Amino acid sequence: MKNEVCTIIGIVGGAIATAFGGWDTALAALVTFMAIDYITGLMVAGIFHTSPKTESGALESLAGWKGLCRKGVTLLVVLVACQLDKVMGSSFIRNAAIIGFMANEAISIIENAGLMGVPIPETITQAVDVLRKKGKEERK
Question: Membrane-spanning residues where (predicted)?
Answer without folding.
Answer: 27-48
